[in-house]
Amino acid sequence: MSTVLEKQACAVRELPVEEWPKLLEVPGPYKEQGTLPVAAHNRMIVAEVNGEIVGYWGAFTVVHTEPVYIQPEYRQRISVVRPLWEGMRDLLVQLQVPGTMAIILDEDAPVNLPMATKLGFQKVPGSLYFLDLRADRK
């Protein structure tokens, strides 16, 4: 036996930026935070039943700030590392990038983790997963 909810048609569409304020009315992270993402770096797909948003899934640009290369004799010098980072940070702020990430491999952690921590990077909870969509391109 099916329920009424199962019989209702679900429409899925990309939500235009001008309609994003609707997301502040839907229970979830945007309503809880009271803010919307930066449109230049985000897209939003919504599921609607009878015109009501019942779910959403966001895609946002994640800026991966790598590769970083510093000649070996300069790697432990904050006088090189700090200005290089400040230049990158200023560029990201100018581009209105909401955040950045770096992937530090376990074997590189002894050298790179202290540098990343000094620059303000923080370990995030969870595990990183990747879905390769290149084969789906037409």
Brief account:
The strands form 2 sheets. Strands 1-2-3 form a 3-stranded antiparallel beta sheet, with no helix packed on it. A two-stranded parallel ribbon has the order 4-5. It has 138 residues and is an alpha+beta fold.
Overall description:
This protein is α+β, with helices and mostly antiparallel strands. The chain has 2 domains: 8-60; 63-118, no CATH class. It has helices spanning 4-7, 29-33, 78-94, 109-118; strands at residues 11-14, 42-49, 52-60, 63-64, 100-101. Strand 2 and strand 3 form a beta hairpin. The two termini are 40 Å apart. The model has no long low-confidence stretch (mean pLDDT 89).
- In total, the number of domains comes to 2
Mean pLDDT rating = 89
Number of helices: 4
Sheet bearing the most strands, described?
3 strands, antiparallel
Distance between the termini: 40 Å
Q: Can you list the strand order of the major beta sheet? A: 1-2-3
What is the radius of gyration computed over CA atoms, rounded to a whole number of angstroms? 21 Å
**Poorly predicted parts:** none
**Principal-axis shape:** elongated
N to C succession of SSEs: HEHEEEHEH
Instruction: Please identify the structural class as seen in this structure.
Output: alpha+beta
- Let me know the number of strands: 5
Strand residue percentage: 15-25%
Q: Helical percent range?
A: 25-40%
